[in-house]
Amino acid sequence: MMHDFTDTHCHFDFPPFSGHESESLALAEQAGVRRIIVPTVTADRFVRVLKLAREYPPLFAALGLHPLYIAGHHEPELEQLAAFLASRPPKLVAVGEIGLDLYMENPQFEQQQRVLNAQLKLAKQYDLPVILHSRRSHDQLAAMLRRAEVPRRGVVHGFAGSLSQAQAFIRLGYYIGVGGTISYERAQKTRNVMAQLPLTSLLLETDAPDMPLAGYQGQANRPERAVEVFHTLCQLRAESPDDIAAHLQHNTHSLFTLVG
Least enclosed by CB within 10 Å: which of 43, 74, 121, 151? Predict the structure, then answer.
């Protein structure tokens, strides 16, 4: 039986997809990946991602300012984000990709926290979930989310932290994004975490074109490989593939409004 999947995190506005949208979506569809959520990383990509979502039925947009580009996020970019959210574009399903990153060089962490707080407030104001980036910053992020109390909650994407860190996010009502990291035998910690978390808290994603799966190193990641992430997850867990697929889809539709 072919399952119906959503890639909840794919940077479809970047190569190798830009300019090859129709072929890329056809490959995803053949694999059973029927919906793709496209988060932005900088304000200059807002228009492009909204246009993609308008033009291609499987695509949905998230708008946000990613912490890796913190040097370019200032008041005008936040005002731009607020204006787009206020205009309620069709197929806008989240504020993202937003978050914290202590792995990068010169993290400007105070500024990261300011920009994240501003975006959490916008998510609250416009009643949208958030798509969260977190590297070496899970405890700080959990503390900020606890204070922010975003009603629609969100997902901590591409999670590779500890079981207790994942459980802290789940207690706050957040989902955990399962990506290609689990395809690597050496990623025992993450594989063990994904085996133990409640199925009710997991979402499927690729982070394409980033985060290539084992066996595809050096190649751009692609949304259809969400299916391979799913197969690996099935190997790690006790439940049946049908049960796992049903939960992933239910969780996706509980968090995001994927209509339009």
Answer: 151
C-beta atoms surrounding 259 within 10 Å = 9
pLDDT of res. 94? 98
Mean residue pLDDT of the chain comes to: 97
Q: Residue 257 gets which letter from DSSP?
A: -
Closest CA to 73 of 50, 45, 102, 37: 45
- The one-letter amino acid code at 208 reads A
CA-to-CA distance for 112 and 109, rounded, in angstroms?
5
Q: Which residues of 53-77 are buried (b: 16+ CB within 10 A; e: fewer)?
A: beebebbbbbbbbbbbebeebeeeb
| Predicted structure pTM score | 0.98
**pLDDT for the residue numbered 2:** 79
Checking if the pLDDT of 1 tops 70, the result is: no
Phi and psi torsions of 98, nearest 5°? -125, 165
> What SS3 state is found at 208?
strand
Residues 91-112 pLDDT 10s = 999 999 999 999 999 999 999 9
pLDDT of residue 112: 98
| Beta carbons of 10 and 37 less than 8 angstroms apart | yes
Beta-strand runs (E) in the chain? 5-7, 33-39, 59-63, 92-101, 130-135, 154-156, 175-178, 202-204
β-pair partners for 39:
62
